[in-house]
Write a structure and sequence with these properties.
By secondary structure, the protein is an alpha+beta fold. It has three helices and six strands; from the N terminus they run ββααββαββ. A hairpin with a 4-residue loop joins strand 5 and strand 6. This is Histidine kinase/HSP90-like ATPase domain-containing protein.
Length: 157
């Protein structure tokens, strides 16, 4: 029997300065940790193998965004989760698909609220944010800058 389990298949491609990676995650078990690990590995590969500039801050923020989006998909949608990472220019786009068509809504800031701050966190660190319905389910896409803003440090060598 050849090939990985269908929920573990991935695709990686590089075209000029655009790289992408897609993985399907089971909605149970350690999928959040797996998604974070795959995001860090993808960005490390983009930096080491393809000479794309990626700061440590970008890797950390990408893992944070992945963690929040996959956690929400796991919590609110039945079935598998599809995560795509795409580097285009100076941004990594994290895109997470799940089967629930209900679009997320950021709640008003409330320092006394315990939990449910994930979307607020994601929007605070994002260069871009989009939530859209798909023919089945929805897709949340978040852009994270690969390089630090001036004064925040430089890209890792």
């Amino acid at each position: 029997m050849a090939g990985p389990h269908p929920l573990e298949e991935d695709e990686t491609a590089l075209d000029g300065r655009s790289a992408h990676f897609t993985v399907a995650l089971a909605a149970d078990g350690p999928c959040i940790a797996q998604a974070r690990h795959k995001a860090a590995t993808f960005l490390g590969h983009a930096q080491a193998e393809h000479d794309l500039p990626v700061s440590q801050r970008a890797t950390d923020l990408t893992q944070l965004v992945v963690s929040e989006l996959v956690t929400n998909a796991r919590k609110y949608a039945p079935g598998p989760i599809l995560m795509t990472l795409r580097v285009t220019g100076e941004t990594v786009e994290v895109s997470v698909w799940d089967s629930d068509p209900v679009l997320p809504v950021a709640r008003a800031a409330d320092a006394g609220r315990v939990g449910q701050h994930g979307l607020e966190i994601v929007m605070a660190v994002a260069q871009s944010f989009e939530a859209r319905r798909e023919p089945v389910g929805k897709r949340i896409s978040v852009g994270v800058a690969l390089l630090d803003a001036p004064g925040l440090g430089s890209a890792a060598a």
